[in-house]
Each structure stands twice: as C-alpha cells, then as structure tokens.
C-alpha cells in the first residue's frame, strides 16, 4: 500500500503553495472541516490521518515505529515528499504540533511556516517547568485509559473540549475517541503524554504561529508561553476560545489568526 492510501491522504485546493493539516490524539482529518475549506482558494491543501486514526490503514500500525513521535514525523515527511511539498505551511493541533517540529527538522525546506494550535513540549511537570500534570496524574490517566477505553473517552473528551454550554462538541470528541482502536489509542496516548520535546524547540528556524486557547486543561497559557519562548521566530496569539479544540469550537477565530500569519 502506498503512502497516500496508508494515511488516507486527500489533496484539495488550487493554490501555488501547499498547506498540510495534522490532527491531534483521538481525532482524524474531519476535525479540520471548518478550517481547511477556507484556504482551498489560496493553497493546495493536504489532509491526512495518522496511522491508527480515521480512514488510515490500521494494518500499517507498528508498535516499534510509533513508540515515539518521530515515527509519526517520518510519515509526515513521506506524505510531503509524495505530494511534492516545498515551503509549505504545516498546521498542527495538539500533539501534532511537536510532530510538525520533528518533521520540519527531518526535511529542511519542506515547510516554510508552522502553525501550532494548543502545543505542549511536555505535559508533565519537571522541576521549574510547569507542564500541567504531575507524573502520577499522567500515569493514573493512562492506567484509566488502559482499563476502560470507553469510560475514559466519555469522561475525558468533554473535559478536553471544554465549552460545556455546547455539549454537542464534547459528544463529537467522545465519539471520535471511541472510534479509535483501543490498543492503538492506549499506545498513542502514552507516547503523547510522556514525550519531552523541549530540546527540539530551539531547532525550529522557520516562522511559527502559536494559537493559545484560554482555559485549556491540556495545554495551559504557561505551556504555550514556554513554547513561544523556546522557538526563536515564533509569535503567540491568545484566543478568546476556550478548551483544547478551537478548530471545532471557534474556527472563525482560528482562521482569522492564520490568515494574518500566512
């Protein structure tokens, strides 16, 4: 099976420059449905699913390859080469922000700009670094997921989404989590929540936009500001949007910030 089939790649738009969208944990490319179409008139847009998510080829999942974020970054680079990406805009949500950081280092010139929505370089606290969670909290979260995938999804997805006044958003994320293969979800969650990419930030040498939500339980303001300080050519925009998924809950605000940047 080819790369495009493996990652369920869809190329749209007609612009001279490309923009590739990478979804977060427990999600798929459908999470970009309110944002991506707006850019089709100016960019050639590339949508895909990480292996293990959405319409990707589940048989391509390899425990060893995907035991670190580098394996997912390798896939992004393969997709980029297959699609002929050069000086493209990489748009990443949540864990895919750091996957984009790694992919940009692996393939210099492939990406000319990075857009990070809700990034975190490390989720666990470490001495003076505030990631938002203690190691004990992360381990308990992962053990809960391993013991009860459906129960974890039903409890965590609405909290991650935020916006309790719009329960349909939390329900959509819950359903997305529940559709993910439980074994792959457990493995990807462990990779996501135990990764430490703080040392990779200073290697990012292209303009980067950080979109920071308010009241985000996954990636707090302090976390976003840390990423901003770590990336030399970065700028941070504080959104009024709440929760961790503004691409669904506040797409117009995300689009406006992206337009100004790209």
The share of residues in helices is 40-55%
- CATH class designation: Alpha Beta
Which CATH architecture?
3-Layer(aba) Sandwich
Helices and strands: which structural class?
A: alpha/beta
How would you name the CATH homologous superfamily? Answer: Alpha/Beta hydrolase fold, catalytic domain
Number of helices: 10
The total beta strand count reads 7
Spans of at least 5 consecutive residues with low confidence: none
Give the spatial strand order of the biggest sheet. 1-3-2-4-5-6-7
The largest sheet, given as strand count, sense and whether it forms a barrel, is: 7 strands, mixed
CATH topology: Rossmann fold
- As for the number of domains, it is 1
First-residue to last-residue Cα separation: 34 Å
Description of the molecule:
This protein is of the alpha/beta class. It has one domain: Rossmann fold (3-Layer(aba) Sandwich), CATH 3.40.50. It contains 10 helices and 7 strands. It has a 7-stranded mixed beta sheet, sandwiched between helices. Helix 4 (135-147) runs antiparallel to helix 7. It is globular, with a radius of gyration of 17 Å. The termini are far apart.
């Amino acid at each position: 099976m080819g790369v495009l089939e493996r990652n369920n790649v869809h190329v749209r738009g007609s612009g001279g420059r490309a923009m590739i969208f990478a979804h977060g944990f427990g999600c798929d490319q459908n999470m970009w449905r309110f944002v991506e179409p707006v850019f089709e008139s100016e960019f050639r847009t590339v949508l895909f699913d990480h292996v293990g998510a959405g319409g990707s080829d589940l048989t391509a999942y390899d425990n060893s390859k995907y035991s670190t974020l580098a394996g997912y970054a390798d896939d992004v680079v393969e997709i980029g080469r297959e699609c002929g990406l050069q000086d493209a805009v990489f748009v990443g949500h949540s864990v895919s922000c750091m996957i984009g950081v790694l992919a940009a280092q692996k393939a210099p010139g492939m990406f000319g700009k990075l857009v990070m929505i809700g990034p975190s370089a490390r989720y666990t606290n470490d001495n003076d670094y505030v990631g938002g969670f203690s190691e004990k909290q992360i381990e308990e979260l992962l053990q809960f997921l391993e013991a009860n995938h459906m129960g974890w999804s039903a409890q965590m997805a609405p909290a991650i989404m935020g916006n309790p006044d719009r329960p349909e958003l939390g329900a959509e994320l819950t359903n997305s989590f529940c559709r993910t293969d439980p074994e792959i979800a457990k493995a990807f969650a462990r990779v996501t929540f135990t990764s430490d990419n703080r040392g990779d930030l200073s290697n990012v040498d292209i303009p980067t936009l950080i979109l920071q939500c308010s009241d985000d339980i996954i990636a707090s303001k302090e976390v976003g500001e840390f990423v901003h300080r770590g990336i030399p050519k970065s700028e941070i925009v504080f959104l009024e949007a709440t929760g961790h998924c503004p691409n669904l809950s506040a797409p117009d605000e995300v689009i406006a910030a992206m337009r100004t940047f790209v």
